[in-house]
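Hi R.,

Here's the chain you asked about this morning:
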Amino acid sequence: MATSGGLLQRKHWRLRACAALLALLLVTPVVVVVLNLFVPRWQTWVHLIETVLPGYVINTGLLALFVGVGVTVVGVASAWVCAMCTFPGQRVMQWALILPIAFPAYVLACVYTDALQFAGPVQTALRATLGWPMAGDFFPQIRSLGGAALVLTMVLYPYVYLLARTAFLEQSGASLESARVLGLSAWGAFGRIALPLARPAIVAGVALALMETLADYGTVDYFGVDTFSTGVFRAWFSFGDPVAASQLGALLLFGIGAVLVLEQRLRGAARYHPTTTRMHYPYRLRGLRALGAVIVCVMPLLLGFVVPAMLLLRLVMQGVELEMAPRFLSYAKNSVTLASLAAVLCVCCALLIAYAARLQLGLSARLAQRVAGLGYALPGVVIALGVLVPLAWLDRGLSALFAFLFGTAPQLWLSGTLIALMFAYLVRFVSIALQTLTAGLSRIRASMDDASRSLGLSASKTLWFVHAPLLARSLLTATLLVFVDVMKELPATLALRPFNLDTLAVQTYHFAKDERLSEAAVMAFALVLVGLLPVLLLARQMRRTPHAKE
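And the predicted structure, written out as tokens:
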């Protein structure tokens, strides 16, 4: 067996080398950002420490704390009642609760700002009906740290809900019934049995939500909340100091790394192996308890999807103008083109890495699979910095070379082009495709590979003729997920896009910053419709998942 394995590794050394080189390319932006910590910028850091850095640290920490608590409470509560109880509307709520994830956070920020500001419909109605001439003096300000935390909580709680619901459904019904027999109430069984068993999944969901919170730029910038993400942009574009921006990005990267390490520590020793059937007797809720369960599920759905969708549609109806159609079609074409190219690129690269790992071609292939997935944990602005710095070095080298050979003037060969933007998308989103395709390949029996090799097919032909047809659904899902995420991506696109290449996400941000919310709503509505595609696909799968049987 050892000899056979050695022959296999020697035979496919090209595949292993390609996977390793691709992983090295994908990790380069991370390494570049971290290495900038060793570049001296003492005067800049003294200025930052004396002025804005304490605010960045406090606001980022408070925002992460508020969002972490919010998504935990909302996600766990709704997951418990949907998975373990029966009440009116439960079957609809169990899939409808994931709909808010279709809203980009900065879109939700725009629609709530328009609705809750002094001239918005809410305060206008209060002044008209209740005679509050100074309602704005007492009304909470949506453009605040609390407003940003609320918006991010409503968008990100589905991460916790999905993982917690799955964990609750997979728990053994016997343990919960035994707890009830021994005298524990429903709340007691939840607190002492179900919640500890689901803790690894809950912590993983909260970690995902916190990573998205730390990476967010559009929401906090629109609300005027100074965090590390806005600080990186300010240092880069306002101060003109990409090194200082990279150093701030490295600190943000370490913060995200701390979240990941904490998540691994909290769930690293937790293991759950069911030994009996997973079926359980759901708690039938009636009366006030049923009403409470409905409120627990309806409130996040209303605040995170239904109300924002109605407000967005209202803004769209106000902002629809015939002269906007050519611009809208141009922005939509740019978004679709970029998202399509990035989706194909990410899926092809992910398939190469995942297949190399499947063939078990040594440590390099397995390491390449892990390293390639690091980019999804990075904020888009940090990736943009990590991409721009090495490309600037290459531009200077190419300009010097071409000037020596052909006498051409220096110019940007890579920076500010589609190459830079596609590279950033690849670093950021290849992990999504990689996880999807790895899961798809794991469902294909290894005996098919052995049978293919016995028939004389090479590894590439086996992938094309055997695995590709079996991976059709996984390939489609991976392509769709990357496509939608690229359509909504803002920071990297904002920083790296070529001149005169604006997307729906960029224009939504610009219109909102200029308080042209009706025009921004037209672009945002298209983004929400596109974001609904994978959500509806996931909802369809959830409707097929059987609920706990009686």
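Residues 325-358 form the longest helix (34 residues).

Let me know if you need anything else.
M.
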